[in-house]
Predict the 3D structure of the following.
Amino acid sequence: MAVLCRLIRARPITSYTVRTFCSPYSTSSPPSSPEIGAISPSLASTKTSDGRNVQWVFLGCPGVGKGTYASRLSKLLGVPHIATGDLVRDELNTKGPLASQLSEIVNQGKLVSDHFIINLLSKRLEVGEAKGESGFILDGFPRTIRQAEILEGVTNIDLVINLKLREEALLAKCLGRRTCSQCGGNYNVACIDIKADDENPAMFMPPLLPPPHCASKLVTRSDDTEHVVKERLRIYNEKSRPVEVFYRKQGKLLEFDLPGGISESWTKLLQVLNLDDHEDKRSAAA
Ligand SMILES: [Zn+2]
């Protein structure tokens, strides 16, 4: 933990070129939507007064798609995407003394301890600092109130994006996840097509199918079974809902209900954050 404190305080402040940022709520009307929680427009800024890069957090149930959106935003904003799930999986792959202990916890769908996660995160930030990184988008951290408090004590989080998806869609999405064993590409074979009911609009999420050269090499993660997915959701509800409350009280929580598949959701997320993906437009126009 001391390592984390030192690292974050010692982080150099570098100048930041905002490639794609539109000033918040400038000419057009503010993006308003019933599912977006009240949040100050200034929070969705990509630059702080001291010039450092964004320090954002993605919250949401396991499998909701935090990784996808965090990764796209990190590329757009030029900050590292730090997924604690990846840090854990990388550690598992080292086959070191901690790996077997970790593997048992993960395969049961249990949470890895705060101490362990913080050590992994410290190591990651240290490596990034050496490479001159500034700012971050955290994905999968903080996951408990204790972790949120530790993070609060050492650095400022500018914005917390809470991704939400109704449970039946979430379960189908988790069970449909596949990874290419050769190139590591992530795909999803589930086609989610839910009819509208009295409370919810219809939802369609198309599958994310692999290219032909990956199709025969798809594997399912060992922890993507219905039992483990449900256990992860139960634990998330118990331990992580309070984290949402913690950030809501600080006025930093942006509630975002995923409207459908990635392309529809990404467009809407950018709109809510007042960001413009010029590269997306260029490639669409090409
Ligand atoms: Zn592949």
